[in-house]
Protein 1
Amino acid sequence: GIQVEQSPPDLILQEGANSTLRCNFSDSVNNLQWFHQNPWGQLINLFYIPSGTKQNGRLSATTVATERYSLLYISSSQTTDSGVYFCAVDSGGSNYKLTFGKGTLLTVNP
Amino acid sequence: EPEVTQTPSHQVTQMGQEVILRCVPISNHLYFYWYRQILGQKVEFLVSFYNNEISEKSEIFDDQFSVERPDGSNFTLKIRSTKLEDSAMYFCAGRGIEAFFGQGTRLTVV
């Protein structure tokens, strides 16, 4: 099956800093989503981005499907950005199931 | 904004007992899923459900697991005889263009 690798596994920032999280995948994808898992365990949708670039406030994402990677940018980080960021892909087939990476644990210190 | 609702949020059960986890998906979704996340690990696919039947299941989804959509709205995951290793966060999800996840049920088997 498709492999999803995320880097870095852990990231510690001071409030106000910028960061880039990376997701590499081993095969072509129909769907790529970024999620934020908050301290209560909820998976919050950030972006649906199988290709191209999107922006939502301080967050933006870019997927280069031909090179099999996606990047999540967080600018002017806040303590509430802390948590685990997951990339998940669906490689096609009839069921559209998602395969998750292991995530990046982001800690933003005040 | 429509959302996926899961109950209960937490459940503690004795080893060997049966548990039923419940989900109300978003009404216009056609594909439904259960995923599992063992503490500190990535989110793993368990089963997909389409047109009132299982469309795909993972190796984790053995004979002790079952899913139902008994009344066209609720979607349930039953674990017949729980084991210690079933302790995890269980997520229900539905898919339109993108996947949306419920807030999860944290299952603890003691």
Protein 2
Amino acid sequence: DGGITQSPKYLFRKEGQNVTLSCEQNLNHDAMYWYRQDPGQGLRLIYYSQIVNDFQKGDIAEGYSVSREKKESFPLTVTSAQKNPTAFYLCASSTMTGPQPQHFGDGTRLSIL
Amino acid sequence: AQKITQTQPGMFVQEKEAVTLDCTYDTSDPSYGLFWYKQPSSGEMIFLIYQGSYDQQNATEGRYSLNFQKARKSANLVISASQLGDSAMYFCAMRATTNAGKSTFGDGTTLTVKP
């Protein structure tokens, strides 16, 4: 079955540490997205990518970095510069043509140790 | 710029009754899509229903229907015959065809279905 796989489901970060969240899709979608969700809140866009080797900042990119070396993969690194990283992170993908819905992974919950 | 407004932080409904979740939007793009997602407590985002800006009829998917009023820029979700499993957070979202594929989400409405 086609879908989006995020790993790990839970992740703990120590002070000063960078951590990387994985996102893989087999839907052959061109566009991929990373969102942050704080408890009881909506989704805020961190980064998005429309094509391999290209990506753009979203609304809250500071303290995060991404790469898009393969169409299927869009990993997110939460750097030590992100002072409040505790949140739920959702990866999504979609086609670029037509107003199609985004498909989401099951998310990664990141906490500070 | 696009904006989605969901004015109901929380809603309660009795089991088997219908409920309407409000959503208003703002965009200058003439071509866009409106979506509703369900997020249970486990966190995954489940796509429920879609309405295109040029669609003449309101979208329906099983117990879900979208009350689309273009002139009022509203896209309310109607859930008929509520079930306990409908308790979740619901997000309205919009995607304009000229906005690089990005979606804009509302802040969500938490629906609680009472037995």
